[in-house]
Task: structure prediction
Amino acid sequence: MMALRALFVLAFVVLTAGDVGSEELTLQRLWQMALKNHEALAIAEEGLQQAHLDIKRAYSVLLPSLTLESTYTRYSEEKRVSGFLIQPEDAVRFEARVSQTIYDGGKEWSLLRQAKKRLKVVRLQRDTVREAVLFDVSLAFFNLLKAEKEVEIRKASLKRAEEHLKTSRALFKVGLTTRVDLLRAETEVATKQTALIEAEAEVRDARALLKRLTGYSGELKIKEPAEEFIIGGTPEELFRLALENRKDYRQKLMEEEIAKEGIRYAKGEFLPSLSVDGVYTWRDQSPRTSFFIEDTLYGGLTIRLPLFEGGLRMAELRKARSILRQKELERYSLKRNIKLEITRLYNDMEKIASLVDALKKRLEFARENYRMALKQYRHGIIRSVDLVDAETLLVDAELSLMNARLDYRLAILRLKKSTGVLLEEALKRVPEERKIDPQVGE
Result:
């Protein structure tokens, strides 16, 4: 019984491992892996953590500071004047100081507002990185899908070429074809084998890239998406959508706000500052001087007004205004580029959609042409070169339609990325996080 139980457990483990290794990964599952494992996202998260710490640093300027200081002094000798001791042999001093800036021209609040706005910018930058990673995974996914489908087409083409070779040999034996036709068929088989080898190499390269992007370490098998990607609207509507959702455009808007805060900060340099200090001092001497005071407690109010510093403040103000103009121009330039990008991607999507319809008809004609050519060749009506041409047209039509169909999906994803909605839609499709995923590397 113990042996049967052990055998059952072993069989279960083997079958389970086989199921895991043969899992067909969807695009959504690969998105999830990339969001979990890609180091670019970890780098972006570190930047977000630094932005949070910058806010804490800005708050520290608003809070009071407490400083403790202790000093020991050893003098060369005692000194007296008219019988009074004015310099001891050694002295000890301890001081506690509390300082609080009451007003600093508004610079301290400007720094805090800038830090909070930079946090929003870093969040947008992180989302930009996430969206770029998702698109890279999508591109690698569809490239792998293309490569795998090309292998299927090349295998079918090789099979047809081998059947053609068999037919050529049979016809050559009965004298219906020449030696040239037979050699042409043999050459065609070798050519198809070469094309298949190259296509299989493309599959391996595409799988390696997808594993690199997702961190997947098992046997990579992908599943073609059943649903179609859809995006609606005119180029003008998509352009307005992009201005609302594009992370880089919203980042430019936020950078303009930061630049305006930079101007406020520069103007604060022209205003007076007010600070309050509270100080407690305790001292001891050996021997004590004649008018020694052991401890002191006092408070002070300090007003500072800069008058002249060599033109530094005016230069800083002009620089801050120049930075604002620069950010405005950058946003304007990006806005125009977004409009052009969306227009071109929309036109490309429409072009590919029209190509798919035309290529479907082309494939039908190519298949019918090959069937007719094959029958005619078997009856000795046409030569081998004519059949090869018909088969070449068929393979080209199959590859063109396959590439166009997948390119259409990619065109929609590119348009979604250009309008800034890819990340949000992808996150809605990403499945729940799995607790154990043995195929994902550390």
About this structure: Residues 6-21, 433-442 have pLDDT under 50 and may be disordered. Strands lie at 24-25, 65-74, 79-81, 84-87, 90-103, 221-222, 273-286, 295-304. The chain has one domain: 23-65+106-272+328-429. The radius of gyration is 38 Å.
